């Protein structure tokens, strides 16, 4: 008789990894690896906590089952030989030293041939050092950024960083190609003006949530795929693109967002793109008492593994 999938084992439990992946010190031999980036700037006036996001998403990844009969009935973890390499050592609120560490460690991890990073933030600021590492390995990098906000504001002073400046730096440093990059899902109120005009001036393509829903998910993503072509894609998914009814535990919630079903469908409609990095961020465990945001983030990360498997196979 086959073992029940929830039968107890005979050994010892190791560290908490994403969906029980093998823990490894590097990504050698893997085609996908999960890495936590437990950093936040520590400057939000009321909702600091995204630094705890990686552990929270791993904890709630136990709610994700590995087989998806509608999409091939394959365990994508095993098919990709995926591993969990743990967390990058950072110091929350210490921006410069932590950004340097994130870029340095991710650059080293990406030396493993064919290994695609699946990173768990952390607040949205971590996307900048991650994009810097990705751009060094993948010239012509394109960003697909799903978020309630553009995170593309000029810094208040040269060299300063916060959770709203990462895409401004990525564009002005030449790390990504703004003309083929997209901000998708923006909505709601903001603290300062210019959230749309600044990225437009830099050349980004913009698809606010109202326009996305008016066009329809399938038609809108067909346009995105056509514009991106086979360019290397940095897929950045900020969990506040989802309505707080479905993902309450985020750093900057904004009402009127995507439903869980719409988020999953949007991600699946990206099939075929040359995704070279998946960045899921902004889960804030202190504001996620039921684990809904952590569980949904874990499901989205695993669905993104399905995208990689479909392209590779």
Description:
- By secondary structure, this protein is an alpha/beta fold.
- The protein has one domain (31-151, 164-312): 3-Layer(aba) Sandwich (Arginase, Chain A).
- It contains ten helices and eight strands.
- The protein has helices at 53-60, 76-80, 95-109, 127-137, 166-172, 197-202, 209-215, 217-228, 260-268, 292-312, and strands spanning 32-37, 83-87, 116-121, 142-146, 182-184, 205-207, 232-238, 274-281.
- An eight-stranded parallel sheet has the order 2-1-3-8-7-4-5-6, with helices on both faces.
- It starts with 31 loop residues before the first strand and ends with a helix.
- The model has no long low-confidence stretch (mean pLDDT 95).
Briefly summarize what is shown:
With 313 residues, this protein is α/β, with parallel strands linked by helices. The protein is built from 10 helices and 8 strands. The longest helix is centred in the last third of the chain and has 21 residues, at 292-312.
